[in-house]
Fold:
Amino acid sequence: MVRTDDVLRLLLVESSLTEADQIITQLRQSGHAVRATRHDTIAGIEESLTTNSWDLVLCRSDLELVTAEEVLSLIRNVGRDIPCIILAEDPEQLEELYDLGAQDIVLTSDKKRLSFTVTRELDNLFVRRLSRRNERALRESEKRAQLLLQTSRDAVAYVHEGMYIYVNHSYLTLFEYEEEEDVAGLSILDMVVSNDHAKFKTAYRQFTEKSAVGSQTISVLCKKSDDEEFPVTVEFSKAEVEGEDCTQLVVREAQVASEILTLMEPEITPVSAFREIDALTNLYNRVRFMEELNKAIAQADEGRQVSELLYIVIDDFQKIKEQIGLSASDGVLKGVAELLKEKLSEGELLARYSDQVFTIIITSGDDKYVDERSEVYRKTIEDYISTVNGKMFNLECSIGISRITENLASPSVGLDRADKACTQAQRAGGNRMVRYQPSVADSSTAGTDTSDEDVYWQEQIQEALQEGNFSLYFQPIVGLHGVEQQIYDVMIRMKGADGELIEASTFINHIHNSELMTGIDEWVIPQALAQLAEHRKEYPKTRFFLKLSKQTLNKADVIEWLNSTLSEHSIDGSALVLEISETVALENLEQAKNIVTQLKGLGCEFCLEHFGSGLDFSHSLNMLDVDYLKINGDFVENMSKDAENQAAVKSIINMSKEAGKMTIAEFVSDANSLALLWRLGVDYASGYYIQEPSPNLDYNFDEDNM
Structure:
C-alpha cells in the first residue's frame, strides 16, 4: 500500500495566508507533495473534515475564531484517523496544550522539528492504514476458507493427536452424524473398523512424524454412526489451526458415482442464494449487512467515501407483540420494512438486523444530510398506523447514528456505537434520533478504541449470538447456615470454532462495556426460564440466580421485558434471584435503587455479586435493598491459606448479619475453605469443591428440600 497519489493532503487551520504559504513551502522543501486547504472558522473546518479525506491537520494554537481544543474535538466527532499537530508561538503555551490529545505540539520557530514531526506522523499513519487493510484481508480470507470448507463436497476433518478439532458438513453427512457435537471428543479411530486400526495408526504415525511437506493416502474400511461399513481413501496432509500444528484428513468413498456429484450441485445454490435474505421482510439480513458494513469501512480507509449508519429500533415492540400476538406482529414488521424500502434513496442500503431492529447505511459523510434522512425514516414509522383485530395503534422508533470511518477496528465497533446512541434515544423517551458522540478515549490517536483481543472476542460473540452457539450451565448453591433451598447459579458457555466450550470468564471482560452484554442477557434469560419452567414441574421449589448486566439495567423497557418473559414461561418472579455487580450498582446508585424496587415488585429477590470489591462495604449495604451478598470470589478462593482474605470474609459476614442480609461464598475450592466458611457463619456456598457447573440440573439437594 502506498499513500494516495504520493500526495500529502493537508488541512491547515491558520488565519494568515502568508504563514500558511510558508508552512506549505517548508513541507515541499522537505520532500512532500502537498495539496493543502486553509480554514480559520469552525464551520469551514467541520465541512472540510466531513466532506474530504485528509492525511494531516496542522492547527495554530492562538487563533481568534477557533481554538485547538475545538479542532481536536471536531476530529474526534467525525471519527477519522487524522493526526493533528498544534503549532504554538509561545513556549509558555506548551504546558497547557499537552492534555488536548494532539499527536505533538511544535513551536512555529522550530522549522526542522516540524518537518521531522510531519514525516513521523505520516509514517505512523501509513502503518496504521496498512495494518487495517491487512486485518480486513485476513478476516475475509479466513471467512472464505471457512465457507469453502463448509460447502466442500469433500469430507474434511482436522485432527490433533488423533482427536477431532473440526469437521465440515460433508464429513458429518458421510458418516451419518447430524451435529458437530456428535463427534466432539471422539477419536478418528472410532470411525475406522477394528480390523483396520493397526493399519490406520501406523500410517497416521508415520505421516505425523515426517518433517517433509506433502500428502499421503491410505485405503481403509470405515463405519458410519449405525456401524454400517464402507471402503474409503483417506488423504493426510499437514495443516495449522489457530497456530497449532494438526493433520487434515480428506475422506472419499472408494467409489463415488458422478451422478451423485451432479445431483448435489443444485442443493448448494439455494443455500448460498438465501443466506443473505431475511425470510420475513425480504430485506438483507444481518449476515449480508455486516458484509456491507465491512465494505463501507474499507471504502473509508481507501479515501473513497465516508458513510454513516442508522440503527432503528421500534419502541416498545415487546408490548405490541403481547397485545396482538406473534403472527400479527410479524405482519407489522413486514409493513414497516415495506415503508422503509419505499423511502430509500440512491446510495442507501437497508437491512433487518434483528427482531425489531433495522439498519441503514447511507453513503454520505454530511451530518446534516444524514440527520435529514434519519428524520424521514423516523417520521415514516411515526405516521404508520396499523389495524389488528379492529384495534388501531401507532408506532414510534428510536434511531442511533454513527459514522463509518477508517478508524473503526471492525464492523462490530461501528454497530456498537450506533446501538449506544439508540439506547440514549430510548432513555430520553424514544421517538427521536441521537448521534453517537465520541469521548477523548475514542480519539484517532490510537487508531482504535478497543484492543485487538477485544475486537476478536466481540466478533466471536456477535457470531455466536447470530448462530445461537451458546449453552447454559448450572452450579448448585448449597445451604450452610441459611434456610435450605434448591437453587442454582446460571452460567453461560460459548461454543468455540473447534467445538470446545469456552467459559464466560474467558470472554466476558472483553465486552463488559459493549451493548453485546444486552444481547447475551436477552439470550440467557429466556433460555434459563424455559429450562426452569420444565424442571419445576418435578421440583417446584427450584430457583435460579440470574445475572443482569449494566447495559440491560439501563434499557428503558427492562421491567416490562422481564415481566413479559416471566409470564411467557408461567413463572412467578419469586423463582428468581437477580444479580448485579456491586461496582455497577454504585456507579449509578439512584437508578439501581429504582430498578431493584421495581423488580422486587415482580416478586424477584436481589443479590449483589462481587461484594467487597468497593472501598466501603457499609455504603452498599445501607443504600441498596438487596437480599443476598455474594462475597468476592478472590477473597474466598484458597482462603484457608491467606489470613488477609479470611479477615475480609469475616468482616463481610459480620457486617451482612447486622444488616439482615444472606451471604454466599463462591469459588469454594477445597475442604478446608468450606469448613472455615462454616465456622465463620456464611449462609450459602458454591464452587468446584461442591460441584462443578453442569449442563444438567442434577444436584442431589437435601431430601427435605425436594
Q: What stands out?
A: Confidence is low (pLDDT under 50) at residues 1-5, 256-274, 440-450. The first strand starts at residue 7 and ends at 13.
